[in-house]
UniProtKB/TrEMBL annotation:
<keyword id="KW-1133">Transmembrane helix</keyword>
<feature type="transmembrane region" description="Helical">
    <location>
        <begin position="291"/>
        <end position="313"/>
    </location>
</feature>
<dbReference type="Pfam" id="PF02687">
    <property type="entry name" value="FtsX"/>
</dbReference>
<feature type="transmembrane region" description="Helical">
    <location>
        <begin position="334"/>
        <end position="361"/>
    </location>
</feature>
<dbReference type="InterPro" id="IPR050250">
    <property type="entry name" value="Macrolide_Exporter_MacB"/>
</dbReference>
<keyword id="KW-0472">Membrane</keyword>
<dbReference type="GO" id="GO:0022857">
    <property type="term" value="F:transmembrane transporter activity"/>
</dbReference>
<feature type="transmembrane region" description="Helical">
    <location>
        <begin position="27"/>
        <end position="46"/>
    </location>
</feature>
<dbReference type="Pfam" id="PF12704">
    <property type="entry name" value="MacB_PCD"/>
</dbReference>
<dbReference type="InterPro" id="IPR003838">
    <property type="entry name" value="ABC3_permease_C"/>
</dbReference>
<feature type="domain" description="MacB-like periplasmic core">
    <location>
        <begin position="25"/>
        <end position="253"/>
    </location>
</feature>
<dbReference type="InterPro" id="IPR025857">
    <property type="entry name" value="MacB_PCD"/>
</dbReference>
<feature type="domain" description="ABC3 transporter permease C-terminal">
    <location>
        <begin position="295"/>
        <end position="408"/>
    </location>
</feature>
<feature type="transmembrane region" description="Helical">
    <location>
        <begin position="381"/>
        <end position="401"/>
    </location>
</feature>
<keyword id="KW-0812">Transmembrane</keyword>
<dbReference type="GO" id="GO:0005886">
    <property type="term" value="C:plasma membrane"/>
</dbReference>
<keyword id="KW-1003">Cell membrane</keyword>
Length: 414
């Protein structure tokens, strides 16, 4: 019970100090408020951005590998001259991998033709992205449908003139009417709509099915050269869930080297790209941003800590005679110590809550003013409260300790 009594008295003393010396207290809390606001705002922004980017990366699948000509490059000097003479992934590579790989759930060959115009009667959609893929495309990508279905095995093998539309393409062509069974025109050929992808919305990496069209690769062979470098051919491999990605990658690398007849000790003439490359780059980037947030906010918190220590020394000076009376009535040193420690923590918590309130206000402004969602996560709220408590304990210890060591007689005389 004495602890609750101490906490209650400490908060009451803090409230009295705030009420009696509003300007002095608010100026002292300003550093804590700015520091907490800076750190939590940076962390909230970084966490929100990271989660959105990670959600985009997750669409690729953590078990998915991409055989491509060019390795993914992130920042710095990109040695393009090493890769320019590499061959593009071919249908021969795809067929060979299908017969050799054991650790995979799906393997598909894909080619892309961008900026295509899609027509339906008097309606048209420009800038659509046409994807042509083999039958196992749905096993290497996560596909959801709001209408219809995926290609049947027979449609894929025979190269039937069928197509699956992105949600935005379907909306632009049919204005919300059912799309299944209708015929559209792409690259001068008529295709029957058998499915519509579920609307995803644009993500941070620009990956979305909303503006895409998907057709069987065997049909696309009659439209363009699917192995030409202009159409970015690639082979997608989805590893089995119970097999480590490193094992899948090792098997894939060995198979590709065998298919291309690469001698031991010679560099690969292909790239194996994976989502962990993006994740690792994100980890490095956000780690630097977090450090910058700690440094900037740390200086404000340091200044705020000195301000809290200063106001606590003033508070001890103003209440010296009260401390003497308390000690003469039997108050122990730890009681006086904890009383001022709790008061310092209460003041820092007040500054911390003000900082968190400013961050929350910033999230509302970004959401309703700029249509950008910034989330104040619970872990960041806990962090802000925790930092406030720690700074309060550090800043209030020495003033509280000096108050607890006062001689009661000398304190009453003051």
């Amino acid at each position: 019970m004495i602890i609750f009594r101490l906490i209650g008295e400490s908060f009451r003393f803090a409230a009295d100090a705030l009420r009696q010396n509003k300007l002095r207290t608010m100026l002292s809390l300003l550093g804590i408020t700015i520091g907490i606001f800076t750190i939590i705002a940076v962390f909230s922004g970084v966490d929100t951005l990271r989660n959105k980017l990670q959600a985009s990366v997750d669409k690729l699948g953590s078990k998915t590998l991409f055989v491509q000509k060019w390795p993914w490059g992130f920042g710095g000097d990109y040695p393009w001259w090493k890769y320019v003479n590499r061959p593009e992934p071919s249908l021969r590579d795809y067929d060979a991998l299908k017969s050799r790989l054991e650790y995979v759930d799906g393997i598909s060959f894909e080619a892309t033709s961008a900026s295509r115009t899609v027509k339906y009667r008097s309606s048209s959609v420009e800038g659509a992205v046409l994807h042509a893929a083999t039958q196992d495309y749905d096993k290497t990508w996560n596909l959801d449908y709001q209408e219809g279905r995926y290609f049947t095995d027979n449609e894929g093998k025979t190269g039937s003139p069928v197509v699956i539309l992105g949600a935005e393409v379907a909306k632009g062509l049919f204005s919300g009417e059912p799309a299944i069974g209708k015929q559209i025109k792409v690259m001068g050929r008529r295709l029957t709509v058998v499915g519509v992808f579920k609307k995803e919305g644009e993500d941070m990496l620009g990956m979305s099915q909303d503006n895409n069209l998907l057709i069987p690769l065997n049909f696309a062979k009659g439209l363009f050269d699917v192995q030409n470098s202009n159409y970015d051919p690639q082979i997608n491999i989805r590893g089995k869930e119970n097999i480590a990605l490193e094992e899948v990658e090792s098997e894939l690398q060995g198979a590709m080297r065998s298919v291309h007849r690469i001698r031991p000790g010679t560099d690969d003439d292909f790239a194996l790209n994976k989502t962990t490359m993006i994740t690792n780059q994100l980890d490095t980037m956000f780690k630097m941003v977090n450090i910058a947030g700690w440094v900037i906010g740390g200086f404000s918190i340091l200044v705020g800590g000195f301000g809290i220590a200063n106001i606590m020394f003033v508070s001890v000076k103003e209440r010296t005679n009260i401390i003497g009376i308390q000690k003469s009535l039997g108050a122990k040193n730890y009681f006086i110590l904890l009383q001022f420690m709790f008061e310092a923590v209460a003041l820092c918590l007040l500054g911390g809550f003000l900082g968190l309130a400013l961050v929350y206000g910033l999230t509302l402004v970004s959401k309703y003013g700029f249509d950008t969602d910034v989330v104040l996560y619970m872990k960041n709220i806990v962090m802000g409260v925790g930092i406030s408590v720690v700074i309060g304990m550090i800043s209030g210890f020495w003033p509280a300790y000096s108050a607890s060591r006062l001689d009661p007689v000398e304190a009453i005389r003051s």
